[in-house]
């Protein structure tokens, strides 16, 4: 059991140090903490005053930064893949809470009014949160539609 904890500690430290190294290179001050979220996934939350430019419009820069950090960590780790996500100033966590509330209110509206709803375009990680939340409602169906740059979710009553 302690071997697993040591491996986890080593992985956490590698992720943390990699993030700090990258942020030092781009001359941005940041504090990094690592925790497990509700789904028991590893999350590295970065606290910084440069959050706006690092997150970008609709989280696009954050997704790109996460991709780069994962590549660097996994290249350093060699023996196995490290699965984790990056958050900045709890942006994804806060956005997730907002999306869960949106999914719930949208589902209730579709069920009570019997209408279909189309949500605003959103990135894949946000659509996943909505789809998972909506899967708890047996009276509705949700699907992603639209082009690559403009994917939306449609929520419909089940026929």
Q: Would you mind describing this structure in some detail?
A:
The model has no long low-confidence stretch (mean pLDDT 90). This protein is of the alpha+beta class. It has two domains: 2-89, K homology (KH) domain (GMP Synthetase, Chain A, domain 3, 2-Layer Sandwich); 94-157, R3H-like domain (Ribosomal Protein S8, Chain: A, domain 1, 2-Layer Sandwich). A hairpin with a 5-residue loop joins strand 1 (31-36) and strand 2. It contains five helices and six strands; from the N terminus they run αββααβαβαββ. Helix 1 (2-25) packs across helix 3 (60-77) and helix 4 crosses helix 5 (124-134). It starts with a helix and ends with a strand. It has helices at 2-25, 51-55, 60-77, 91-113, 124-134; strands spanning 31-36, 42-47, 84-88, 117-118, 140-145, 152-157.
CATH architecture of the largest domain, please? 2-Layer Sandwich
Helix content: 40-55%
Mean pLDDT: 90
CATH topology type of the largest domain: GMP Synthetase, Chain A, domain 3
Structural class: alpha+beta
Order of helices and strands: HEEHHEHEHEE
Biggest pleated sheet: 3 strands, mixed
What is the end-to-end distance? 50 Å
Work out the helix count. Answer: 5
Large-scale geometry: elongated
Alpha carbon gyration radius: 18 Å
- The CATH class label of the largest domain is Alpha Beta
